[in-house]
Task: inverse folding
């Protein structure tokens, strides 16, 4: 049976006016950041409280697993913290339910501080406004295993740069290894369709369009890879964690990642690290995929000025820059990516990846539509799996996925 | 003397108003306490049952007739959710898998723990070690158990390494729809063996030894004695195990979720009904009304399962 579900918290919301005095106690919720960045956040909160002596911030951190469920329960129960770490797909339903503050109205003056693409990433089709401050961005290259490339007779210094090259190399690698080594371990996700140049949604945001000819073409290519064993046999049930593990254990030859992964390779898989190849993401659009994090303000906060001031404080250029130096993420504030930290080479792989990623972020796109819910991701994944297994043609599978996602969109 | 006590008992239990008024205050207080005390003792339990069982149950039934979503209060939609279920392929897949789980897991969990209990029933040196060993999976966390089995059944795991070593070739335990489901069933059986073994051990301890001795004197061998003495003696325990394991099997979630992943296996073909409730009803865009309708179906089926098992038991009794 479903757990005890609380009713809506009513509409006793606070004011959307953020111009008052910054005072009172607010609660700030992060997403699985306490374990590694406790001192950073404690310092940040101390700085804020020093700047605004009448304000106090209570920090809570939630585990990564089930974060959306926690937000959902809190939002329904009226106990959502005043300031919340969110991703765009979490913001969309909260904005629709009137729980996320429209920053264009309440904090529009800060817009110019952020990269335009990042500011737009928390806008929701069908709604006017921007519903979270952009926080950190992430993107990364494609890692490949030079040893596996070499053993298959491929040039380890010439990794694939286009989709055609990727598919050709993958088939050759599978053929040479007699199906023992796959090149990829994951089925295409919505961002893969986006990067391949498939239009994902109509302009109004009222329907999905990834079943067009280009989408069918991508899925057909993946079907060929699957049949040739160039796609790992367990790809249909893979998760990002399991694909990462496959690459770590050298069961697959390529995997997308970020600068964070290099440290992991060095520590957990020294043999892989010795043979690691780094190449840019493959994209038909010329724009890489990026992941965006945001910080939203709860419309029901009783301390709107303090909540908005703190959300801005967490995401301003100075704090984002200092956070980026602690972990391999990238700031979303204007000009920050021009800092020497993101432009000056020192010969290390970490710096090379960081510089390349920072460069690509200036034009990168968050290909995952904000309205694409977890349920929709499952629908697409299942449709892709049916096509790869040959139970449905790629066209039929994508048509069904679009139909299912459109239905879920209407119900959301 | 005996009859006087018996005759006065009802009068003590239900005194008339006049007698109550005439009684001394201390006795009245005692009588009041006799009425209120049981309720006071039961109150915490009743509160827990009310808040954590009855309220969610009633709430789920009510929600099943609405289009409630996580962040949106729903409105009454009658049987629309149940009608939609009839046309939802994933619901039928879930129903098929949950039913199949019952059909495969329940007979195994009725018979295998009984055989195991017979093996470890004897008092021989070192038998406590085996009893503890067989019970270990019961106390192990299901997440840990699931992960261990995933590692073992992976394409590069222990089981496939052994199969390859003997020349059998790799088997897609975690990539084939049916192998994945049966692997999850095997884990459920493996994890449940020890639990039901303990229940059977208690039942076997109550089987009179004389019956076995008499059967042995009559020339019955071990198999005959098992079928004619042990099985009838533990039949009611077998029914209990069947009832418990069938409800648990129909509501299976963890094993399949851990092994098949959040999508429920390739193309969701290994989804069970409870996984479907989790998938459709949770998250910020979860359809609480629809998930509640699936929950109501699960409730009805489990009640029917229990009734069937109990009915079969009564038939046997006759």
Result:
């Amino acid at each position: 049976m479903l757990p005890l579900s609380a009713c809506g918290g009513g509409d006793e919301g606070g004011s959307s006016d953020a111009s008052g005095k910054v005072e009172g106690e607010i609660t700030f919720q992060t997403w699985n950041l306490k374990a590694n960045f406790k001192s950073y956040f404690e310092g940040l909160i101390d700085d804020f409280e020093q700047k605004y002596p009448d304000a106090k911030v209570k920090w809570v951190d939630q585990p990564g697993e089930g974060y959306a469920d926690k937000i959902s329960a809190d939002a329904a129960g009226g106990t959502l913290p005043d300031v919340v770490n969110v991703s765009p797909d979490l913001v969309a339903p909260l904005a629709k339910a009137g729980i996320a503050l429209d920053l264009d109205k309440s904090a529009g003056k800060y817009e110019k501080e952020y990269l335009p693409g990042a500011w737009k990433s928390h806008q929701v089709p069908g709604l006017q406004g921007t519903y979270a401050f952009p926080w950190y961005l992430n993107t990364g290259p494609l890692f490949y295993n030079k040893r596996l490339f070499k053993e298959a007779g491929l040039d380890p210094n010439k990794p694939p740069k286009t989709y055609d090259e990727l598919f050709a190399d993958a088939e050759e690698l599978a053929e040479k290894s007699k199906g023992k080594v796959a090149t990829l371990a994951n089925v295409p996700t919505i961002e893969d369709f986006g990067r391949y140049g498939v239009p994902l949604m109509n302009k109004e945001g009222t329907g999905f369009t990834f079943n067009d000819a280009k989408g069918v073409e991508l899925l057909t290519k993946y079907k060929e890879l699957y049949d040739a064993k160039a796609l790992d046999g367990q790809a249909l049930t893979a998760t990002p964690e399991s694909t990462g593990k496959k690459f770590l254990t050298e069961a697959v030859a390529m995997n997308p990642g970020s600068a964070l992964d290099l440290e992991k390779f060095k520590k957990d898989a020294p043999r892989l690290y010795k043979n690691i190849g780094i190449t840019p993401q493959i994209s038909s659009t010329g724009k890489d995929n990026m992941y965006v994090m945001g910080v939203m303000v709860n419309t029901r906060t009783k301390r709107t000025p303090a909540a908005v001031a703190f959300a801005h404080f967490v995401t301003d250029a100075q704090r984002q820059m200092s956070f980026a130096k602690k972990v391999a993420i990238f700031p979303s504030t204007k000009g920050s990516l021009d800092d020497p930290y993101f432009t000056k080479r020192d010969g290390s792989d970490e710096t090379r990846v960081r510089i390349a990623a920072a460069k690509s972020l200036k034009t990168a796109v968050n290909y995952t539509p904000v309205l694409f819910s977890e349920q929709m991701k499952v629908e697409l994944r299942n449709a892709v799996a049916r096509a790869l297994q040959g139970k449905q043609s790629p066209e039929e599978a994508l048509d069904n996925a679009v139909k299912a996602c459109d239905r879920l969109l209407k119900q959301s | 003397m005996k009859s006087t006590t018996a005759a006065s008992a009802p009068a003590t239990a239900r005194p008339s108003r006049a007698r109550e008024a005439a009684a001394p205050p201390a006795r009245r207080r005692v009588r009041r306490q006799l009425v209120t005390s049981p309720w006071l003792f039961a109150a915490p339990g009743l509160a827990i049952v009310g808040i954590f069982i009855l309220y969610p149950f009633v709430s789920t039934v009510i929600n099943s007739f609405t289009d409630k979503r996580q962040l949106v209060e729903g409105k009454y939609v009658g049987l629309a959710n149940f009608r939609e279920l009839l046309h939802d392929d994933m619901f039928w897949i879930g129903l098929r898998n949950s039913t199949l789980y019952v059909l495969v897991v329940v007979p195994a969990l009725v018979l295998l723990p009984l055989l195991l209990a017979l093996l470890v029933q004897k008092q021989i040196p070192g038998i406590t070690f085996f009893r503890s060993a067989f019970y270990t999976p019961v106390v192990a966390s299901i997440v840990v158990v699931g992960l261990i089995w995933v590692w073992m059944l992976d394409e590069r795991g222990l089981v496939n390494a052994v199969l390859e070593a003997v020349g059998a070739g790799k088997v897609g335990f975690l990539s084939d729809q049916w192998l994945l489901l049966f692997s999850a069933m095997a884990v459920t059986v493996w994890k449940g063996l020890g639990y039901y073994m303990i229940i059977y051990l208690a039942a076997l301890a109550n089987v009179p030894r004389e019956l076995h001795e008499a059967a042995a004197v009559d020339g019955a061998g071990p198999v005959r004695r098992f079928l004619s003495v042990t099985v009838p003696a533990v039949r009611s325990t077998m029914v209990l195990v069947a009832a418990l394991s069938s409800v648990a099997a129909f509501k299976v979630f963890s094993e399949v979720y851990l092994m098949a992943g959040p999508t429920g296996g390739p193309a969701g073909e290994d989804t069970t009904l409870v996984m479907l409730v989790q998938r459709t009803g949770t998250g910020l865009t979860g359809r609480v009304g629809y998930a509640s309708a699936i929950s109501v179906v699960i409730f009805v089926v489990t009640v029917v399962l229990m009734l069937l098992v109990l009915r079969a038991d009564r038939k046997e009794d006759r």
Notes: Chain A touches chain B at residues 1-5, 7-8, 68-69, 71-72, 75-76, 90, 93-94, 96-97, 99, 233-234, 236-239, 242, 249, 251, 373-375, 378, 381-383, 385-386, 389, 391, 408, 411-412 (CB under 8 Å). The CA atoms of residues 379 and 401 of chain A lie 6 Å apart. The beta strands of chain A are 24-31, 55-62, 83-86, 133-138, 142-145, 254-256, 276-279, 291-297.
